[in-house]
Write a structure and sequence with these properties.
With 360 residues, this protein is an alpha/beta fold. It has two domains: 4-244, Alkaline Phosphatase, subunit A; 261-344, no CATH class. Helices cover 37% and strands 13% of the residues. The strands form three sheets. The chain has a six-stranded mixed sheet with strand order 6-5-4-7-1-8, sandwiched between helices. The chain has a two-stranded antiparallel ribbon with strand order 2-3. A two-stranded antiparallel ribbon has the order 9-10. Helix 2 packs parallel to helix 6 (119-125) and helix 4 packs across helix 6 (119-125). The longest helix is centred in the middle third of the chain and has 24 residues, at 212-235. It starts with a strand and ends in a 20-residue tail after the last strand. The relative contact order is 0.15. The chain binds zinc ion. The site of zinc ion has 6 residues, from loops.
Length: 360
């Protein structure tokens, strides 16, 4: 029996629930929690890992949607990156702390995560699925399959018998609902079922919030959640339903691309750093060193972190934190790194305060 159904609507703001009649009704019938907070940074995959484990990003080791690890640029939206790169670097544990699925497995119970966001996000909701604890099933193509599924036994079972994708604006969410009702509940019999809906996040990234596209998406998702929850409760009437989000959203009129190092250097530091072209790749170390210089560190203090760049940034590809989705092609730039110049360095006149908001 499904004791708990956890629904995560990616990027759903609390104030938008009033635009969703079904969720509003659900909230009135049940309990609303007004103090829900995302993690910092409030990004999708760090939030997914934290939601699965109860630990903050500093503990899960998933601090971004992309991250560097041992010279590898890891896209956490890709399950192959998570398993073949990050997990193998971490001694065959994707997260250093047990996730809910593993706790349940220890007690003879099962968690199944179904997601329509990136397949990496779906795996982070139940990282133990690769070891056979429950399952993780993503609605996006992976390898030769039209979906992603672990463990392998679930992938094989689904390979020839998937529900037909429905027409309409969010076919993956319809697919996920059919999958849950027709296969996951009757055959996998999870005790805890997680559905992660990635659709609203995609729409709001493309169109912003508080506009017709976002509002239409809220209505469509609300209708689909009604269908999902009604159908789940037909099979398991006593299932507790929890609906939450990974982070909110806001419209941005200006963004700062931290991979564009040249544009980040303030006038007070133009004599203190040298730009070095043809470095192997623009990398986090240069941005980090620049921020530390802005906050008052001396060139001697940041120099060790910057050398030797050739070894540090040996991985291919450019690095970006511009908020594009994991499936977007990487933008390639002229590689630039910085080198501190102690001869011209002077302490900044005033300490700068950096603030940012980000929702991805
Ligand atoms: Zn998100």
């Amino acid at each position: 029996m499904v004791s708990t159904l956890l629904v995560v609507v990616d990027g759903l703001r609390a104030t938008d629930v009033r635009k969703m009649p079904f969720l509003t009704q659900l909230a009135h019938r049940g309990v609303s929690y007004r103090q829900a907070r995302s993690v910092a940074p409030s990004l999708t995959r760090p939030a997914a890992a934290s939601l699965a484990s109860g630990a903050p990003p500093g503990v899960t080791g998933i601090p971004g949607n992309r991250l560097w690890a041992d010279g590898h640029l890891i896209d956490t939206g890709r399950p192959d990156h998570l398993v073949e790169l990050l997990r193998s670097l971490r001694g065959d544990r994707l997260l250093p702390v047990p996730a809910l699925g593993e706790h349940l497995a220890d007690h003879g119970h099962k968690l199944v995560a179904v997601g329509t966001g990136s397949n990496g996000c779906t795996l982070l909701l139940n990282p133990g699925a690769v070891d056979g604890h429950g399952a993780a099933i993503g609605a996006r193509p992976f390898g030769h399959d039209a979906f992603y599924a672990r463990p392998e036994s679930v992938r094989r079972r689904l390979a020839g018998s998937l529900p037909q994708a429905a027409d309409g604006p969010f076919p993956e969410l319809d697919w996920a609902t059919d999958l849950i009702v027709d296969y996951v509940i009757p055959e996998l019999a999870p005790d805890v079922l997680v559905l992660w809906s990635g659709e609203l996040d995609d729409v709001q990234h493309a169109n912003g919030v508080d506009g017709p596209a976002g509002d239409d998406a809220l209505s469509e998702i609300d209708r689909r959640l009604r269908r999902l929850i009604d159908r789940v409760r037909e099979q398991t009437p006593h299932t507790d339903v929890i609906v939450t989000a990974d982070h909110g959203f806001s419209n941005a009129t200006h963004t700062v691309d931290v991979a564009d190092i040249e544009s980040l250097i303030p006038p007070s530091l133009t004599d203190a750093v040298q730009l070095v072209d043809n470095a192997p790749g623009t990398d986090t170390h240069s941005v980090g060193a620049l921020v530390r210089l802005m906050l008052g560190a001396t060139p001697a203090q940041v120099a060790p972190a910057l050398a030797p760049p050739a070894e540090r940034a040996a991985s291919t590809g450019s690095w970006s934190t511009d908020g594009t989705s994991s499936d977007a092609p990487h933008r390639h730039r002229r590689p630039v790194t910085i080198r501190p110049s102690s001869r011209h360095w002077a302490p900044p006149l005033a300490r700068r305060t950096c603030t940012s908001t980000a929702s991805v």
